Amino acid sequence: MRRKKIITEESKQIIGDLLSKERYLALEPRLNLDVEHYLKNRNILEAINLNTIRWQSQQNREFTRILVTANTSSGKSTLVNALLGLNVVATAQESKTAAVTQIIESYTGTRIINNENLIRAPFLMKKYTSNRLAVIDTPGVNDAQNPKYVKLTKEAILKNNYSYLVYVIGTPGSIEEFNYMRWIIKHVEHEKIIFVLNKIDNYQASEDNVISTLTKLKFDLEKIGYPNAIIYPMSAYAAYLIKRHEFANDLDNDELDEYEYLIKKFKRPQNNLSQTKVRNVKFLDLLSICGMLAFENKIRGELNYETSIH
Fold it and tell me: Which structural domain, as residue segments, surrounds residue 252?
């Protein structure tokens, strides 16, 4: 006769969200103990009492909340998926394209909870960091057919319940970007704002120049009252492919071709976006050259491998 387990899958999910990765992995073998074993070891249940776990978690591990915003077609969803290393955002928002969605870092798999715009997901990184993330993904603000998107996003921004606001710029210099930057700078504390200049993978050496684009962007920001802005140039798409190749190894043939092309492109000195060489860690080196590592270190408060770009 098959014996029941004392901890349900739902309880394991809750425990995984509350604990650090090290604590969860240490505890996981105990979560599968059956009733007979538990009766001989009552102290085990006490050790995983959810109230105690929740209190310890709140004391020791706070989420860093990141709100991500952009005009449409800026690569915002790609950036969120690159943080995760998974195609989570597109799947989760197929039926909720106008929703503000929160994605919290978990260690027990990926799933949508109760259809309440809350997702638990692993944020894949080679080195586990102590600072767990919660990403608030907002709708694009310049969709003329859906003006309610602007209202939803601005309401989320004005709540001010985040550590950083990440503004993803896809088309620098456009009137839409300029106007939205002006609104952001007016309503958000400047020390919370991080700008991401995305889609660097689309730049062509004969036509585009990252340095001149950054210089112009900084000039525009100074003109509207925000000097010394923090700007991260990157290819979120390259980072997304790099993480999937490293952790899941599930790229199809077309994606594998793109992965190899982008790696070659960013390894060229004129395209390399890294500030510091990451030695003997190939995966982190690849994230560095496409600009993702510096950004991820910034929002996690990690400076182990590379300093942030200003």
Answer: 62-310
